[in-house]
Amino acid sequence: MADIICRWLNEDVRLSVNIDRLAIGKEFSNGFLFGELLRKYELQNDFNAFSKSSAANAKLNNFTRLEPTMKLLRIPFDTNVARSIMDGRAGEANRLLYQLFIALNNKKSANLTEAAMETMRPKAPAKLDRLQRPVYTERLKTMVPRQSDINIDAVSEPFREKKRKLIEKSFIE
Questions:
Q1: Quick one: CA dihedral 112, 114, 120, 125, positive or negative?
Q2: Considering Cα of 117, then 121, then 103, then 79, what sign does the dihedral take?
Q3: Distance CA 20, CA 17 (A)
Q4: How far apart are CA 65 and CA 114, in angstroms?
């Protein structure tokens, strides 16, 4: 399956980065390439607001922007899926890419535009998705650690290790 997805991304879609099947999780972990893929199919109009950075704020921005499009394509996408992909968990990006492969090929074969897909959606689920969007955003914010916290942990780790060694040394003597 990964070979089919890679062939589709590299030959048919032609993303800005050549995708290796062993690095799909890493390549897609910040959400930028998902946005680029959806832009190629004319579904991500705000792609210029996406960031290539792997900082926590950039990932949060990218995945928050992806959520409405995934709902439009009727792809199950919640904070757990987003967090799994951000963390680079094995197979999560592949699974989402496979779902996108199916949904985007169906869209292409039906010759539908984003506006046509939006008008074809039943009114109640569309309204529910709009109401759930702020909840998704806030929940994702609580799940993703802030970049400043990540940076502080990285800086303070050597000092914690030094403290641990000093404590061990004091108990030995």
A1: positive
A2: positive
A3: 9
A4: 15
